[in-house]
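#random but structural
TW: two for the price of one
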Amino acid sequence: MQWTLVIPLKPLARAKSRLADTAADGVRPGLALAFAQDTVAAALACGAVRDVAVVTNDALAARELAALGARIVADEPHDGLNAALAHAAAVVRAERPSCALAALNADLPALRALELGRVLDAAAQFPRAFLPDTAEIGTTLLAAAPGAELRPEFGTDSRFRHRASGAKELLLTDVDSVRQDVDTGEDLRAALALGVGPYTKSVVAAQTLR
């Protein structure tokens, strides 16, 4: 099964505020963009991925991610993460009603294409499925097979809300790169230990992180 991934990205100036203890104000937008670039690049390298749509209103991010091969969808609802994902899913499905869709976090700088493929192959067995993050509280990927609505419930306690919505929780091992999102300094250090992509590596190398 070939998937279209929908990746949400808020304006870079407002991204990654929880990294304030690790990265200065002027560094965080660059880190957020680098996380997204590594995420998109790895996703497009995955054999199970047909294409990637990034939903964002940030002009710089849109330009840089389009250069990698992502399609850019404007966040017209301006009503938060789940509304943005639902809008992007509707845009994609308006063109290809029977496509398989998956929402993927934009902050997976250690993402590996092979591990993402394993997750998507497992998700294909269910109408809706999700992968919890390493903290086992949030969600890094939510998948909807052809004919199923995405119905995103990202945000606080999204693992429990996605499970309550009827989505199948994927209990996979050895897919840490798909589960390791970055919200805090501790998360960033964990991602660096896994091995981040070239964009994040370059930004981190050029900065002094706390």
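TW: number two ↓
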Amino acid sequence: MNPVTGIVVYVIIWWTVLFAVLPWGVHVPDKVEAGHAESAPDRPLLLKKAIATTLVAAVIWVGFFLLQRSNLITFRPS
């Protein structure tokens, strides 16, 4: 796998994991302020979610990299 492919795969994994992590710990406020959506979270904790996403995506990417390097699964025609 060349570096560009590795980066592209990591970015795809990162965005997929982000959408899985976004709902974690979401609490809707009891009293909604004027001009805010009723479904808007009280504290979205985006920095913590970005850090968690980066760590989880890195672990998944390393697993993908090792699986690809082991030739158990190949993406090249034989």
